[in-house]
Amino acid sequence: MLDRLNQAMEHIESRLDQRIDTADLARIAVTSEYHFRRMFSALAGMPLSEYIRRRRLTVAGADVLAGRRTLLDIAVRYGYGSGEAFARAFRAMHGIGPGEARRTGATLSSQPRMSFRLVVEGSSSMEYRIVEKEEFRVVGAKARVPLVHAGMNPAIAEFIRGIAPETLRRLEELCDQEPRGIVAVSDDIAESRAEGTELDYYHGVVTGAEAPEGFSALTVAAGTWAVFENSGEFPLTLQTIWRDVFTQWFPSNPYRSRPGPEILRIRLSDDASRADAELWIPVERTG
Q1: Which of 107, 135, 147, 196 has the highest CB neighbour number within 10 Å of its CB?
Q2: Residue 230 pLDDT level (bands cut at 50, 70, 90)
């Protein structure tokens, strides 16, 4: 899998001055577009679109300093419809406009080329199981919140604080299948998975029942799920479980992610310093 990802990275480098189609990259990596974007953002720590933008502005910066092309030619070469649009993007990355950079020979920022390799750390194993589920519903309270990659999500924390204990008790009575109890569900996540883009967050339960009045419901189609378990320091264990799934488990197993909600069940210790986490990811076999 990593070899194929690196071939896709070479394809990006060869087409920085041309249109780059995610479908082509997914074909090179022998996976779906959805899974390719998920894998890339997990491994690279940034969305695919952001990496391509930064690589283009890096090589465009070299062209600006070289002085062999006009600034408009450089803008058009790297996909900008006008000199003004190019100048705004250039300044956002490099902290200086292209004209001033050329005149002064300024020091510019650089996005290095990425390649991926497998690093084996320690001897711990990742606990997982594969579950086939019939169609079910997520029923609970719903909010549209921004995506936060690291640390607690303040919008989600504030939303949960506003849910009355009696509401949670009513929800728990509806739960009739795995994962049991109150769960955190993320759905309708932006394709780029960029920081600050929005997603639907449900604080509720998994059930086959209809949603009572006053609650939101998400119907989830039948399919295959990979279920991962992790225990450790809170909230660090929640951050590492997602990272490890996409950087360690997927490259080593015959599955890829498929569209669908991500479901997280958390059980905190009495002092809230540690957590047992169970993460459900929708998957499909690759062969």
Answers
A1: 147
A2: confident
